[in-house]
Amino acid sequence: MVKDKQDMKLQSFFIRMVRATKLDINLYDEVEANATTSGQACLAVILSSLAIGIGAGIAGMFKWAGIWSIWGLLIILIGSIVVWLICSSLAYFTGTRLFKGHKTSATVGELLRAIGFSASPGVLGILLFIPTVGGFIWLGASIWALAAGVVAVKQALDFTTTRAIMTCLVSWFGCIIIIVLTIAMSLIFLIDGSCTLGSGFNSRVNSIVGQYRFSITAWEVTALPHELSQWIRASEENVDDAVELVTEYFSVTAEQKRDLENKVELILENQIEESLIKQDIFGFPPVNLKLDTMPRLLVISPRDEIESMREIMLDNGLSSQEIDYIETRVDNLNVSSLIVQLGGFGGAYPSFVTNSASLRFTVKTAVEEWIHQYLAFKPLGFRYLLDILGIARNYEIATMNETVAGMVSDEICAIVCDRYYSEQKEPVEDTSDFDLEMREIRLAVDDYLARGEIELAEEYMEQKRQYLASRGYYIRKLNQAYFAWYGTYADEPSSVSPIGVELKQLRSQCDSVKEFLDTVAMMTSRQDLKDKVELLQ
Fold first, then answer.
1. Burial 110-132 (b: 16+ CB within 10 A, else e)
2. Torsion angle (degrees, nearest 10) of CA 433, 438, 439, 441
3. Strand partners, 344
4. Residue 114, domain member (yes or no)
5. Predicted local confidence at residue 228, as pLDDT
6. For burial by CB atoms within 10 Å, which of 187, 433, 459, 475 has the most?
């Protein structure tokens, strides 16, 4: 008898999911009023998310995370439940306060049940693995689920269709903002605390740099309210006036720049975004930058190989004595260290861009940092994020990501400058001799280290640093950390990685910068890049 009742409940549940998929308004009225269906609503969300996860797993899409399918399923499952809870809560508060009508009367539980069943069309996501059409089926199911969500809100709140759509739009947008900010603040917390946890080495480094650390969290707390007020006050700028204003900004003193900074940020954001759209590059998040004084970065590499093992942001106002003090004490831990001045940082939102560089450098940096943010939601960028957080170190992934961002930003920067600032010519310095010398130095250092001759490698780098200074090329400190930092850009002379050559070959085989970016964004390893280049040759 008990088994029969369970079978009947299960059958009733699946019938409800079918009715919800058919957008049966009576079904949504029924579950709204029946508190006993709360568990079924949650189960509908779980089944829909699992269906999508299984379809994605069969299609091989979980390789982007570099983890097994079970972890991919858990991420989708937990994410779906969180989104359901957030959207339902926002729909309740929006509907009962912002768009409340005479007949509006609902509880959070009623919205949870109705919106939970609206996820039912998502079960079609299990067909995602079907070649060619699977993606279209998933897209159709997603749109179907959104439509079901509107019906659910309409019935639960006794709204008109228009008011239900408005409530859903506000709820969905609010959900996106909450999730993005939560992820961003979590990552910022991890980055801020990345050297305060873990091994004894980390503890010793933190004891040295603790009082000099730059807090991304504190910067975000200041920057986000400022950016929000800018969005609220933002208005369309006249293009001619905008160009003149930006040109003026890059020709005045630092004190005078402060009065122009807000407008210049908005203008550059619009110009960059428009240039990206013209290249058919539509992405998330929106282009958003903050011109400010950049912090410094402590780069730490092992002495016996060239690889960045730690990167810690430090305050900008360090004196030369403090820089020498930090580097000397860190070097005493039997590593190689270097403090560099950052030009931009895309690990925050808005992007952090220096306010003391030229127009072209500023545009290129703003684009490059946005590319990093764009890629963070793609396989390549996600793997890079795992590398940055120390979860899955992969120097080749870091090199691919940095090089791609640099190559794409070069192209987009040229488009922006040619369109808006063609009269603003900047001198081009011939660095061919320097480039050749740096490449030879890097190759020689790699040979020394491969033979285990660490001291000889360091003596050689110091001799070459002095030689370059005599030729007019001043480098404050040339060591393993220097090459570890600048070597992640595989198209730079300080890098000997073949990744730069491979990416340039791939770019030459792509018809557009969009095709190149889309192709590389889906890669999860250096082998993917090599295979793609060989396939297209």
1. bbbbbbbbbbbbbbbbbbbbeee
2. 130
3. 353
4. yes
5. 60
6. 187
Q: In what helix (H) or strand (E) does residue 121 lie, and over which residues does it extend?
A: none
Query: Can you tell me the distance from the alpha carbon of 383 to that of 391, in angstroms, rounded to the nearest whole number?
Result: 9
Q: What are the tens digits of pLDDT across the range 414-462?
A: 999 999 998 877 766 666 788 888 889 999 999 999 999 999 999 999 9
The answer to whether 525 and 467 are in contact (CB under 8 A) is no
The torsion angles phi and psi of 492, rounded to 5 degrees, stand at -95, 155
Q: Give the 3-state secondary structure of residue 502.
A: helix
Report the residue count for the chain: 537
> Tokens representing 42?
């949650």
Domain annotation covers residue 129: yes
In a domain, residue 329? The reply is no
DSSP state of 237: P
> Is position 467 within any domain?
no
Total domains in the chain come to: 1
Region for 344 from its dihedrals, namely left if φ exceeds 0, alpha if ψ lies in -120 to 50, beta otherwise: beta
d(CA 462, CA 518): 42
Mean pLDDT of all residues belonging to the chain: 84
pLDDT tens-place string over residues 341-384: 999 998 888 888 999 999 999 999 999 999 998 998 888 988 88
Strands 351-354 and 344-345, sheet pairing? antiparallel
Q: Are strands 335-341 and 351-354 parallel, antiparallel or unpaired?
A: unpaired
Of 245, 250, 281, 285, the closest CA to residue 266 belongs to 245
Q: How far, in Å, CA of 509 to CA of 516, rounded? A: 8
Tokens of 327: 């580097």
Token pair recorded at residue 241: 């006036």
Question: Residue 92: which domain range?
Answer: 1-187
Using 50, 70 and 90 to split pLDDT, how confident is the model at 229? Answer: low
